Structure formats: structure tokens, C-alpha cells
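ERR on first pass: missing label on line 2. Operator R.T. fixed the label and resubmitted. Corrected input:
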Amino acid sequence: MKTAEPPSPGPSGLIVDRRQLLAGAGALGLALGPMGGLARAEDAPKKGGTLRMGMEGGSASDSLDFRTYTDSIHISYGYQIFNGMVEIAQDGTATGELLESWSTKPGATEWVFDVRKGVTFHSGKTLDADDIIYSLNLHRGETKSPAKDLLSAIADIRKLGPNQVGITLSSGNADLPYNLSDYHVLVVPNGFSDWSKPDGTGAYALETFQPGVKVVTRNTGRYWKPNRAWFDSIEIRYIPDVAARTQALISGQVDAVNRLDPKTVGFVLKSPKVDVVQSKGSGNRFAFVAHCDDPSFASNDTRMALKYGIDRQKIVDTVYKGYASIGNDTLIAPSNPYFVPNTPPHSYDPDRAASLYKKAGSPPLQLQVSEGAFSGATDSAVLFQESLKKAGINLDLKRVSADGYWDNVWLKAPFCAVYWGGRPSVDLQLSQTFFSTANWNDSHWRDPGFDKLVVAARIELDPAKRKSMYAEAQHMIADTGGMICYAVGDYLDGYAKKVKGVVPHPRYDMADQRAAEKAWFA
Amino acid sequence: MILSRIGLGLLTLLVVSIVIFVLTQILPGDTATSVLGQNATPETLAAFRHELGLDRPAALRYLAWLGGVLHGDFGVALTNKQDIVEVLGPRFRNTLFLAGYAALMALPLAVGFGILAAIREGRLTDRLANIVALLAISMPEFFVGYLLILNLSVNHEWFPSLATVGTDTPFGERVWAVTLPAVTLTFLVTAHMLRMTRNSVLSTMSTAYVEMAFLKGLSRARVVTRHALPNAASPVISVIALNLAYLVVGVVVVENVFTYPGVGQYMIDAVSKRDVPVIEACGIVFAGVFITLNTFADVMAIVLNPRLRHPR
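pass 2 clean. output:
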């Protein structure tokens, strides 16, 4: 096995180390296929035990208020205590959660949602339409909620019955259920306001909340989803240091960890007690983003020179040790059904980059970068600089402070590092970042044709037509945009072998951060 | 005399709180921008700031905070509304426990070997003590921490690599869990105290009355412990106080490596989220530790030194 090539995941996403597999097969005299891990998900689930999760992605400042969630630990305890309105299924489609089902009319502005019946909060209250309306309104009007933009098209919410809600949009959107699957859009009872005593419909009720140290929840024993919530209790331990986290897993002090380091996954795989679950091509999108209205980047030739002048494969191999896919500048993940594989990937071509850069008049280039943007940003930038040098292009690297990066550098510096998380629908992925009027249009790329196309695709209910529209939109971004998205990271989770029922999910790691309700102990 | 010292200490705390507040205002960004991060939009920032009261003038916010503190109320964290004293209390006890544990190992080691090195100046014991201590202090603490984890919790599963303790952890288990971080800290602080003890004793050794003691025919060990040491104690005590204070306030890297819930990580998280009341509370606790230990060192120096005890 070449060391540069990471072990490939089986159909279950489980990485099987070949040496380990061969040794095991030899000892047992078995012929194993390439899917040694598939049996995991098929073991019959059983109840009991405490799942101890060692996680990164939170701090001592964490709050239970879901309008402040930004990171993995928040999403994990959010989905333990509360339920979402809509769940993203294993195949990436929106499926009913507390909103059981829905229907819309052509134009996708008028929606009717049925609220699930027979669901109770931890306090004993029964879920009804008022709770849904109250919870949605937490993200509307004057609010700090990051989901405000997501739901800004909602013009009106009406109660149609005790278990039915009507929503009117100011402009049509066939993907509204996907917007409602956002991890901020969780459900509390009508009038709820004391966030220190959270009341949700989730499988587990809060027991201990010590942000920065641990969060403990206990199974309520009356969860409404069938075949979920197997553990007696869940314990999240904050372990921000990746070495400490990895070590805690290997030595059995925790049963599950998130965000393994690509550099040490090989070492983790040698442990006989641990499985690694790799979610390919659904992780964070790593990019350098240039302001299209800045003098240096105003010419599309400069932008294209940068796209041809970055050696994506080398960065994926070196910085991410192969645990990433090559990005094609659109932020759409390769695992997405609307991903356009035939967009000409801007593969490394120093000669082409050189001539484009000369054609643009050789403007000065400075990239601002920090590990505060994402882990690996600085190394990637150095490799970017090197690969541009071969094209005779000089890129000035400016290292900036990680502290306050999102406030001081991103959206302000003309050329800087950025990562984007996956969004549940193509529409969100495109419109939150590339729409002319988007708050987070960090490339300052504005194309009225693109805006029109995305709005039209939003209400197009014919899948084939929609697909071709999204394909065109992706071409527009890749060929003229200021986003150089060079890689899409893999999610790497580690589990003790006794943890079953965890498979890669198209959205987030740790089974869409619902490992607490999906997994069980063998 | 004692009253004026306490008054001076309180004044120092007040100045520290003002300096911390001003510094947090100079830092770019505020709680709203740091919590929302990449998700921020101008409207959500404005709503968040209004909710937190960050739209009031800075001086007003400081005075409101100070008023609360004077009534014994350190307030709640801006980010998650948790009561600061309730969160800080257990964490501070953890920090003191780790510092105390490390001091219990480091002090006898440092002072003992320091004196031994002075007695056997230039001989093998002296050289060895010096070399080992310097090696220990030259290694960064995270490196020492990882080495200990590798040897004592990976290769031999004697100690846990996670030192996460809670308020309900029994004493014995707590000692066991905190051993590795405490040993790491011992590596870190021993050298300074050891060399100070050795050198302080040796410098006293070159004085006339020590020569006199030798001329009386006393053994070197007796001269060192009986005549030189009491006079060498004062500078050693200040160095010990400094190192004890360091054990309390400077251990955030060790906390991180071993995932130990101390004050350090709490303060770092608060700084990165610009949670001013929490930063203030941590800063005041740390400043308080420094002031207390320094005062203690001064008092001890007076007690041990007859010339200071009976000023002419």
C-alpha cells in the first residue's frame, strides 16, 4: 500500500486497514470482502450504557440557547435535548421530524405543514402548532439568530389547526423543508424562555451542563422515534486538543471522538480497539476568496490565473494526507447529487496561469491567511505560493492573528482564507454565498444572470430541469467567480469497536451529529 | 501595618480591574461578533448587542459591573448567562488542587536537592541535580506532558491521560487522575527553586561567620543547615512564592494537554469570546493569588530574619 494513498472507505464508510484485515482474515481462515465493517450496522440494536463522546467544537462560553450554536458540540447536545423541524435522511433528502409532512402549490410560496401528533416535551406538555410557530419566530424579526437569513423569505406563519401550520413565502422556494432542517431551527414549547432549564422533545433530557468540561444527558425512556435512543445516558467531554482526544479514544477513556487528525489516522487504525468512520467529500470546503471588485482581482484573467496556478492535488496529498477531495470552486460537495462532475476542473497548469496573469497586467497579489480560518490554511497557502512561483507569479503571504479572524479579516481583506460548511440544499449553498445581495458574498461576485437562474431553480419542481439549471449556475461560478475552493475535507470520526450503528452522513460528521440517538453498544 | 498592606492589596485589585477592562475594550470585536463569528450579519449583531447591553457606553458598563462586585455579585457570563462564581468556584478549587499537588512534590525536591547540591558543591550530586533540573526546565511543558502520557498511560496503563475531574470525584481518584499533570508541572518549576536554593546557600557560605563556623571544626553539613540556611532562606522564599503563583496562573498549556478543568482554559475561552465579566473575575482571582503569595513571602522573610523583625 502506498503511504500517500489513504485506505479507502468501504460502503459503510468504515476504513479498514489492509494489513489488519489480512492478519485477521489469515488468523480466522476467512475470506473477507472489502467491506469488513458492513456487519456493524446490521447487528441488532440493544439498549443500555453510557456513550462517552470526546469532542472538539465548543468552549466554556457555550450556551443551551440554540440561537447561539455555531459548532459541533452545540449541534450534538442540541439534537440530544431538542428535535428539529425536519431531519436530513441518510440519502440527503429532507424527511419529516416534528413537522411530519408537508405540501406546497406550484410556485412554492404557499406551504402547509402537519405537526407530528403524540409527541411530548420533557415537561410533559404535548407538542402542537403553537410551539412550532413560537420556535420559528425565535429566528424572525429582531433576533441574534444566525438562521434569520435562512428564514427571511417567510412572510407569514398561520395556525391552520391544532396540528397544522401554514407558511407563506415572499418568494417561492421548493427547498423550504431543507431550510427548516438547519441545526438552529429546533423546537421549544410556546413561551419558553429559561435556557438554563431546556425543555425539548429530544431523546435525552439535560442532567449536567458544564460548558468547557462536560454535558450529560439522560434517556427519558419515552422517545417518539422508533428504533432510536439506545443509550441510558450520553456524556460529552470537551477535549479540544486533538492528541489528547485521540489518546482518550485509544485508551478507552471515551467511546467516540470527532475530528481525528488526518496526519495521525494511520496510527489510530493500528489500534485493535478502534474504528474510523470517514465521511468522504461532505466536510468543510476550504478556499481562498478574492474580492472581484478589488483592483488586483477585477480582471477575470487574474482569478482564472489563480485557479490554474494552485496545485490542488498536492495540497490534498500533503496538507490533508489524502483525506479530502479536490474542490472545483463552487462549494458544492462532490457527494451532492447536483454536483457537476464535468465542470472542467481547473487542474494545475502553470503555463496557462502565467499567460493569464500577464494578460491581466500582473497586478500585485497579497493573501491574508491564519490558522483561525481553518486548520491547514497556512500550510495550504504556502503550497499555493510555491505553485504560483513556478508560473512566475509572486504571491505575498500575510499571516494574521487567529483571534477575531472572522470579524477583522474575512469579508474585509481583498484576498483571504475561508471555509464553508455544507448546507442541506444546493440552493442554500449557492444563494448564501454567491447571490449578489447575500450578506456573506465574500467574493463580491455579482451576476444578475446567476441570481435570476438561482431564483428560477428554487421554484422549479421538475428535477431534470432543475439539475441543468444548477449545472449552469456552477459553471458560472467556476468560470468567473472569485472563490478558489481547492479542497473539500473528509470528516474523520473515531469509535470504540463496540459502538454500532454509525455510518457516514451526507451533512455532518458523527452521523449528522445524531450519533447519540442513532448508535448503540454491541 | 497589616491593615495598610491589605488596603494596598485592594487598591491593586481595583487598578487591575480597570486595566483589564480597558484592555478588553481595545481588543478588536466584542461578544456579539465573537459568538456569531462567520454567521454574523449586521442585523443579528445589532440585536445581540442590544440583548447583552453592549450598546451602552463602556464607562457605564464598568461602573455597573463594579457596583455589582462591591455587593459581592460577580454577575453572569455574557455568553451563556451562567453564574460566574458558581462556575469559577469549582474550577478555582481544581486549579489550587493541581498547584498544591505539584508544590507538594516540587518544594521538597527543589529545596532538598538545592541544599544537598550546596553541601556537595562541585561533586557528582551537585552536577547531576543541576543537569537534570536544567533538562527538565528546557523542555516545553506540552512535550513533557506528551512524554508522560506516552510512557505512563499508553505504553503502561498506569495513569489516565485525561485528567477531567468533577466536583463529585472522590479524593483518591482525583489524586490519581491529576498525577500526570502535577508531575509535568513539577518538571517545570523545580529547576528555578533548586538553583536559587543552592546559590543562595553558597553565597552565604562565603561570609565571615560561616568561615568562623568551619574554623570551630563543624562538619560541612552542619554548617550548611544550621548557619547558612536560615540566612539564605529569604531570597529562596520569594522565588518559591513566585513559582507557586506561576503554578496557579500559568498552567493553561498543561490544562489543555490533560483536559483539566481549571481556571486557565475558562479565562482563555472568555477572552476569545470577549466575555468581559468572566475575564474580570478570572483576572481578579489571579491578581489576588499573586498579591496574597507576595505578602506571605514578605511576612515570612520578616519572621525568619531577626534584623527585619526588630528594626532599629
